[in-house]
Automatic annotation (TrEMBL), chain A:
<dbReference type="GO" id="GO:0016491">
    <property type="term" value="F:oxidoreductase activity"/>
</dbReference>
<dbReference type="Pfam" id="PF02754">
    <property type="entry name" value="CCG"/>
</dbReference>
<feature type="domain" description="Cysteine-rich">
    <location>
        <begin position="3"/>
        <end position="84"/>
    </location>
</feature>
<protein>
    <submittedName>
        <fullName>(Fe-S)-binding protein</fullName>
    </submittedName>
</protein>
<feature type="domain" description="Cysteine-rich">
    <location>
        <begin position="127"/>
        <end position="221"/>
    </location>
</feature>
<dbReference type="InterPro" id="IPR004017">
    <property type="entry name" value="Cys_rich_dom"/>
</dbReference>
<dbReference type="GO" id="GO:0005829">
    <property type="term" value="C:cytosol"/>
</dbReference>
TrEMBL record, chain B:
<dbReference type="InterPro" id="IPR024569">
    <property type="entry name" value="LutB_C"/>
</dbReference>
<dbReference type="InterPro" id="IPR037171">
    <property type="entry name" value="NagB/RpiA_transferase-like"/>
</dbReference>
<keyword id="KW-0004">4Fe-4S</keyword>
<keyword id="KW-0479">Metal-binding</keyword>
<dbReference type="InterPro" id="IPR003741">
    <property type="entry name" value="LUD_dom"/>
</dbReference>
<dbReference type="Pfam" id="PF11870">
    <property type="entry name" value="LutB_C"/>
</dbReference>
<keyword id="KW-0677">Repeat</keyword>
<keyword id="KW-0249">Electron transport</keyword>
<dbReference type="InterPro" id="IPR009051">
    <property type="entry name" value="Helical_ferredxn"/>
</dbReference>
Length: 244, 459
């Protein structure tokens, strides 16, 4: 099984450790992983701002980089959702379709494709999960509180396999953190308020760490936590699942 | 419309956020309504099937709107109602004014109707010397405060009870400092009763109009629609053309969904059916288009016409709860307002589809399953294509695209950017960077993942 590793641009630039953890975790689980050099971004920042028509360049690059893999895996629900919903390239539609159908966010790849049921990981801390909206409501990584439907959570399922880890209960299980791509700067006031409220929920319930499937949301929450001089830290789920 | 009559959503929302305790209170109040809705929905195991059924019925309505409207008109006329057609807000207002002039009235009562808000009926009638008394308690409160409603179901949800006490003291003569909700409600009731008794004309909105029977259903908790319509000589019912449902038995689906979604009640206190005018009374129905056929013609947005105005998408919206209804500068606020408004005036409301994180919670609570967040995304594309985005934003997007579609440039820019952040943090961390205002920038690592990979994995 050949896995193409997609490390979205801001993870590549600002959170290389998340990329490293994702790679080591997949390797530990026996995957043959390749990181195609020359990859950049899924195009989402532009598309969500109304500039989807500018994303041809990104799309072509993406298809070129990832068309030859059995699976494409990324540690970001949001970028994966964008590719699944919007990757099209004139003249290369077969390759684009292959990618749209074979791209997975890391935790769903672990639960649904690799069917992982135990992990060699240890993290003796109290952890709160931030359910990023695109992963949750877009990729259905976990059940949504709005629906009258049976609960499940792929990230939780994985975190339960980590020795010593204690999950905290939140008052609002799946409220948005307010990152929202360019929303975080164009709607700064509301974005920050939403982030502060999410953080309060985690802190009030005793979380030492906030984890999640999207570094973008975590980066926003971390920015606020650091401004507050808080002791609470953020970690991407790959960093916890890979922690021995 | 005037150019930039209003500040944009982001600025109005920033104003709202100057008072953080108030934002917390607003957020908690609406979240409480969302939770009530959840509890009510969970009492019905068939909830999701009910939503699907409602969505399908409305799908059928939108596909056959012409036929259903004609059927409704025919049946309503047979029932003795007079049916008027209004292509837009101006026509609607003129029809209503004409009817009021025929009666020679200078003052009359209106029960809640978001359509008349959309058409700006009150100010139009005021200009023509006719005073409208809103009889829904929440609407009366915002009317006294000379403000528009901030929510389609809970019009004065942005007001605290102390503020309402003050308003009543000023306008209705209640004792200063009394903010007891029960007392204030009783005072409002006394005041409105007088208006009901004197009013010869009553305007109501319409929640559902049944094509099969020509009847209309109005849902209220206060019974004010009935009071107005039964006591007046002339009842004018104003409705958007999308309010049609094919058959009476479809009410069994919609009435179960509406109040549960709106306020977490199993049903509204009153579901009043109006079919025939009583002897000596006139019943007028004004059917209003006002952009609805245009929206119907937009494939990506026509589903927005399924809306039954329950307000659930507002209560669940994390942005609405923290920016307040007035920040949407439109009669209908929140996620649904943001997909309806650009159809009315794309330039004026170009900011609204961007007032969202696209979290998708709205689409999940919507009882008629409108793909609200997807429409927000699609409106963004249309608005940019039609040239309504700010030049600075467009320039930054072009620059971003330039970098992201060229790996060499991306690598160089990323390396340089991280170097700048490490070497000269002041260049990034300043007042002009909205990220930095209340958030630290991420710490820039020495090497990117790509660099690390090259060193550690590449053969
Ligand atoms: S869009 Fe849906 S949730 Fe929002 S008001 Fe309309 S019916 Fe209710």
């Amino acid at each position: 099984m050949k896995v193409g590793l997609f490390i979205p641009c801001y993870i590549d630039q600002f959170y290389p450790n998340v990329g490293i953890a994702t790679l080591s975790l997949l390797e530990k689980l026996g995957c043959e992983v390749v990181y195609p050099q020359g990859q950049t971004c899924c195009g989402q920042p532009m598309a969500n701002s109304g500039f989807e028509h500018l994303t041809h360049g990104c799309n072509e690059l993406f298809v070129k980089n990832f068309q030859d893999y059995d699976y494409i895996v990324a540690p970001s629900g949001s970028c994966v959702l964008h590719i699944k919903d919007h990757l099209h390239v004139d003249g290369k539609e077969d390759a684009a379709t292959h990618i749209r159908q074979r791209i997975y966010e890391l935790s769903e790849f672990l639960t649904d494709v690799l069917k992982v049921n135990n992990l060699r990981a240890k993290f003796p801390h109290k952890v709160g999960i931030h359910q990023s909206c695109h992963g949750q409501r877009g990729l259905h990584l976990s059940q949504m509180t709005e629906l009258v439907a049976a609960p499940f959570s792929k990230p939780e399922q994985l975190l339960h396999m980590v020795e010593g880890l204690e999950l905290v209960e939140l008052k609002r299980k799946d409220e948005c953190c307010g990152f929202g791509g360019t929303f975080c700067v164009f709607e700064e006031a509301v974005s920050v308020k939403m982030g502060k409220d999410r953080i309060d929920d985690h802190v009030n319930n005793g979380a030492e760490y906030i984890t999640g499937n999207d570094v973008s949301c975590l980066m926003h929450l971390e920015g606020i936590l650091r401004r507050q001089n808080s002791n609470v830290k953020v970690l991407h789920i790959a960093e916890i699942l890979n922690h021995e | 419309m005037n150019e930039h009559q209003h500040k944009e959503h982001s600025l109005l929302a920033a104003d709202f956020n100057r008072n953080e305790p108030r934002v917390n209170w607003h957020d908690e109040t609406l979240w409480w309504v969302r939770q009530k809705r959840d509890r009510m929905a969970w009492t019905l195991p068939e909830w999701e099937a009910l939503r699907e059924a409602a969505s399908c019925i409305k799908h059928n309505v939108l596909g056959n709107l012409h036929d259903y409207l004609v059927e409704f008109e025919r049946n309503a006329q047979q029932n003795g109602a007079v049916v008027h057609w209004a292509a837009n807000a101006e026509e609607h207002n003129r029809i209503v004014l004409q009817l009021l002039r025929e009666q020679g009235v200078k003052r009359m009562v209106k029960s809640k109707s978001m359509l008349t808000e959309e058409c700006h009926l009150n100010p139009f009638l005021a200009e023509n010397g006719i005073e409208v008394i809103d009889t829904d308690l929440g609407e009366r409160i915002v009317q006294l405060a000379k403000e528009p409603p901030s929510h389609i179901v809970l019009p004065c949800i942005h007001k605290k009870k102390e503020e309402i006490g003050e308003l009543f003291h000023e306008h209705l003569g209640t004792p200063a400092g009394n903010a007891d909700p029960q007392f204030l409600t009783a005072a409002a009731r006394q005041h409105l009763r007088k208006e009901f008794i004197q009013s010869r004309v009553a305007i109501t909105g319409v929640n559902f109009a049944v094509a099969e029977t020509g009847e209309m259903v109005v849902c209220t908790n206060e019974g004010n629609a009935d009071m107005g319509a039964h006591l007046a000589d002339v009842h004018i019912a104003c409705m958007g053309i999308e309010k049609i449902i094919p058959k009476r038995h479809h009410l069994g689906v919609f009435l179960r969904l509406l109040a549960r979604s709106a306020t977490g009640q199993p049903i509204t206190t009153y579901s009043s059916h109006f079919r025939k005018p009583k002897a000596g009374q006139q019943l007028h129905i004004v059917l209003v288009d006002n952009g609805r056929s245009r929206q119907l013609d937009r494939d990506d947005f026509r589903n927005s016409l399924k809306c039954i105005r329950c307000g659930a998408c507002m209560n669940t919206c994390p942005v609405y709860r923290r920016s307040g209804g007035h920040s949407y500068h439109n009669a209908i606020a929140g996620p649904i307002g943001a997909i309806l408004a650009p159809n009315l005036d794309m330039k004026e409301y170009a900011d609204l589809p961007f007032a969202s994180t696209l979290c998708g919670s709205c689409s999940n609570v919507c009882p008629v399953k409108i793909d609200i967040h997807q429409q927000l995304y699609k409106w963004r594309q249309v608005i940019v294509q039609e040239g309504h985005s700010k030049p600075a934003k467009a320039a930054s997007m072009h620059a971003m695209n330039m970098v992201l579609s060229r790996p060499g440039l991306y690598k160089a820019a990323g390396g340089a950017g991280r170097w700048v952040m490490r070497a000269m943090p002041a260049v990034v961390n300043n007042k002009l960077n909205p990220w930095y205002k209340q958030r630290e920038m991420p710490e820039a690592p020495k090497q990117s993942f790509a660099d690390w990979y090259k060193k550690n994995r590449s053969k």
